[in-house]
Amino acid sequence: MEKQLQKFFVLSNVMLLCASLVSTTQSQTNVSAVGDPGMQRDGLRVAFEAWNFCNEVGQEAPYMGSPRAAQCFDLSQGSLIHKVTEKDNKLGVGESLPGLRPEDINNIDLYAVQKELYLGSLCEVKDTPRPWQFWMIMLKNGNYDSRSGLCPQDGKRVPPFKPGRFPCFGTGCMNQPILCHQWTKLEGDVMRGGFNGTYDLDSSCRDSGLDDNNNLSFYEVVWEKKVNVGSWLFKHKLKTSKKYPWLMLYLRADTVSGFSGGYHYDTRGMLKAPLESPNFKVRLTLDVKKGGGSKSQFYLLDMGSCWKNNGAPCDGDVLTDVTRYSEMIINPETPAWCSPTGLGNCPPFHITPDNKKIFRNDTANFPYSAYHYYCAPGNAQHLEQPVSTCDPYSNPQAQEIVQLLPHPIWGEYGYPINKGDGWVGDARTWELDVGGLASRLYFYQDPGTSPAKRIWTSIDTGTEIFVSDKDEVAEWTISDFDVILIQPKSSLMTNVY
Fold it and tell me: What is the pLDDT of residue 263?
């Protein structure tokens, strides 16, 4: 009996040790990749960037300066200590800026790059493994003046051409917006501030507001938080108009250095650690108040990165770099363009959670309704036919996009499985195995090349109201946003045993 008791105590101790090791390993490795985990920090860091159709600036709006801005502050002894001034936010071409080469002082696109880096330096928070800067609010105008010659075709400069399917009311349609600041204030125990504005340059901050009857475009992001309580709540509004029928508004967590998704230069952001598939998850609370109409491609999550078709990392060469996006659209009015009769809108194959391939011509098993649209990079040399290639003008380089729809096959990753999940009236806190899903999505690669490391440099939520035929309004809130790094299970087992 005594020997049996000794064996029992030894076994119990071993089990407790294993449990302790697992717990310790998880606490050490399941850490946040963002500087402000869950948006809990009272001192906020938030920035603003606006883009034209091809992710450049093109031309500054009058009296607005370069379309980059920030509000960054700490809370100290009941007061907000702001890090950025109105003068910083109004800086524009022709004005000196730290790090700016003299020959670039009048280059509108390169000036915006350096202004973002400068604002990042004012907002930066020292941290481990590296410092971080801010959440990014991204606004984009979908108008494209094909006669302007501003946007390259898959990275190649092309001359002006006749207007086609892209909206444009005429010369100047790719303009930057009016930007109005509501400087964050502390009222009682609540901190509140925001950005808003319009693309209509004959308007002003005084009359910029959400009005269904004024035929003006409008955007707004307001943030608020109780001191020492919970998460920041980011309230978003976006309104299209006849002149601006295609607008985009996202809240992004971008890499703290390197290329964020869709860009070809150094950026600043909130992600202080690399997000490599499959080892990360995303947690957020989303409440969609108004959907933005049938053309609103509302992204529960949009992730972006960049690697070349041969699997090599991007290096800024727009002729060979390729932006890669994956987007989960939760608007239940968004149809599946991928179908047995539309194979060119489907990826060549689907990969199940247990790594089985289902080819798109397998009509009995391929999950067509799980995909809205797939398009391949326009600079790829070995595409499987039939194929749709992505719009060659809306990024500085070629792009590849995988757009998903709610479907039971995504349930294992925590994604929505039914039309309407997470939509208006169904606010939820999501925990999404983004890294796991991203490791199994199809992305083009040249035959015979080593697989690319899928390291994601941008994670965002928001909507793209895609060429609406009437004025539309979208409204939503985001809070509790976090990105969690997960150590592979094999490593956990190695540590325990």
Answer: 87
